[in-house]
């Protein structure tokens, strides 16, 4: 069996040569998207707490500047409502999102590392059985992945 026949049997089909790279890339994008979504939702929830606190601070500033006692009374009631309802709900939501962001983070971090490993293996397969220009490209991509780790 000559080298050409062996290459055809090992990975002559481009789909098989690139299957590991594509599988690794899909897994990497999925895990990275989920990790980004989890951290973003936790930050958004903490931003809601800060928004309610900012609204309370603005109302307190308006109370100091207001001359009417009726307006001051209404603003104080509004501040009490914000503290009792909105701030409490926002803090609970932020705590829930923070816990949710931490659950499963280990699994998705490991999935991301596994995806990088699968992509590296795919590039090594391409470097082993691909054509000359595929070998060069695969080795360059492999080197870039390894240096980014």
From TrEMBL:
Keywords: Coiled coil, Membrane, Transmembrane, Transmembrane helix. It comes from the Bacteria. Residues 49-85 form a coiled coil. The chain crosses the membrane at residues 15-35, 111-130. This is Uncharacterized protein. The lineage of its organism: Bacteria, Pseudomonadati, Verrucomicrobiota, Verrucomicrobiia, Verrucomicrobiales.
């Amino acid at each position: 069996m000559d080298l050409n026949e062996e290459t055809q049997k090992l990975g002559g089909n481009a789909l098989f040569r690139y299957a590991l790279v594509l599988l690794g890339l899909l897994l990497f994008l999925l895990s990275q998207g989920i990790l980004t979504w989890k951290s973003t939702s936790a930050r958004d929830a903490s931003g809601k707490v800060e928004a309610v606190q900012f609204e309370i601070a603005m109302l307190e500033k308006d109370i100091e500047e207001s001359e009417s006692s009726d307006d001051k009374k209404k603003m104080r009631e509004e501040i009490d409502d914000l503290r009792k309802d909105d701030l409490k709900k926002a803090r609970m939501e932020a705590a829930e999102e923070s816990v949710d962001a931490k659950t499963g983070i280990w699994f998705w971090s490991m999935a991301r590392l596994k995806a990088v490993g699968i992509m590296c293996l795919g590039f090594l397969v391409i470097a082993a059985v691909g054509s000359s220009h595929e070998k060069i490209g695969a080795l360059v991509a492999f080197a870039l992945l390894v240096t980014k780790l």
